[in-house]
Design goal:
single chain, alpha/beta, 44% helix, binds adenosine-5'-diphosphate, binds magnesium ion
């Protein structure tokens, strides 16, 4: 690339809030033939809200949420924040003093554990229950499948080593996601979704945004491994993400694109930052790079 072409493209990018960290990023972006999208916070709005609660034990809703919130208030995860916010609504008097949680443990990509009022409280996905030796009753499994089909995430709450209920959380897809994915297709760029969330929810979200190729239940290192596999098969891969858990994949990809509203770790790891946090700017970035290199060919 001529330095001038790179400079012009970088300048135009900056004026659109697309921060390109150097000529190499631009050169790689021009060759991209597939883009791996993180789900939560990238394809979805990333602000999950509690939409339903199913109690499976003889426990009142407030008590159930006191346990869940006491454990989750220690977590930074968006799902944890959704649960705490909902618990606050059940205590409108403003008394948001949850019982004290001891021995808090956060299991990345699975959930949290703590001891609350002398009871063991475990909040998270099926995997966390299994690894903690908590049996999942059929009723709970059925709720999970039902919720996943609706593109929601079912979070299991176990109190005293028994499943006490399931919290349903919804994180809607971004309104322009479908349009961006179909536009990329018209540019001969294939889209793939990768997520730590379960297969059911991931497939349902995939249907909403028009992505067929899905990789679910992926830990952060596995996200990076999938990117490397695609590269080994001869593809030039871009990764779009917002979270700490996306940073290994952002580094591995030929081009890492971070959502500006995402975590600092993701922004550091990326080659291109989408300052406006608008998915359409993925198209802007690819388009700019293609134009820059077309001119000098
Ligand atoms: P994503 O890749 O979609 O951002 P994560 O890898 O962060 O998802 O989490 C994967 C799954 O682990 C979540 O869908 C959820 O079921 C469970 N999980 C993670 N953290 C928590 C938490 N603090 N509370 C409850 N569940 C959690
Ligand atoms: Mg994310």
């Amino acid at each position: 690339a001529t330095p001038t072409a790179v400079m012009v493209a970088t300048g135009v990018g900056a004026s659109h809030g697309v921060l390109i960290k150097g000529g190499q990023a631009l050169e790689s972006a021009q060759k991209v033939d597939c883009i791996v999208f993180d789900k939560t916070g990238t394809l979805t709005i990333g602000k999950p809200v509690v939409v339903d609660t199913r109690l499976l034990k003889n426990m009142v809703l407030r008590e159930f949420y006191d346990y869940a919130a006491a454990a989750e208030v220690n977590s930074e995860h968006p799902l944890a924040k959704a649960i705490v916010e909902h618990a606050k609504k059940l205590r409108p008097e403003g008394n948001h003093m949850w019982p004290e949680a001891r021995e808090f443990i956060s299991v990345t990509g699975q959930g949290v554990k703590a001891e609350v009022s002398g009871k063991s409280v475990i909040v998270g996905n099926k995997g966390l229950m299994l690894s903690s030796g908590i049996g999942i009753p059929l009723e709970a499994s059925e709720i999970l499948v039902e919720e996943e089909g609706k593109a929601r995430t079912g979070i299991i709450v176990a109190v005293d080593r028994e499943v006490a209920g399931v919290i349903s959380v919804s994180d809607p897809t971004k309104p322009n996601a479908l349009q961006v994915i179909s536009y990329l297709k018209s540019m001969n760029v294939e889209s793939i979704m990768v997520t730590g969330d379960n297969w059911g929810t991931a497939n349902a979200i995939g249907r909403e945004v028009g992505i067929e190729k899905i990789i679910a239940e992926a830990k952060p290192e596995q996200k990076a491994e999938r990117v490397k596999e695609l590269q080994l098969s001869g593809r030039t891969v871009a990764m779009v993400g917002d979270g700490i858990n996306d940073s290994p994949a952002l580094v591995s990809a030929d081009v890492g694109l971070a959502i500006g509203a995402g975590t600092d770790v993701a922004i550091e790891a990326a080659d291109i930052v989408l300052m406006k946090s608008n998915l359409e700017d993925v198209v802007t970035a690819i388009d700019l790079s293609r134009k820059a290199f077309f001119r000098i060919r």
